[in-house]
Amino acid sequence: MALHKILKIVALLLGVAGVIFLAMIIAKGDEAVSATGEGVDGFLYVAYITFAITIVFVLFFVLKGIFAGNIKNTLISVGAFLLIVVIAYVLADGNQMPMQEGEMLSESGSKWVGTGLYTFYILAILAVGSMVFSGIKKVTK
Question: What is the pLDDT of residue 38?
Answer without folding.
Answer: 65
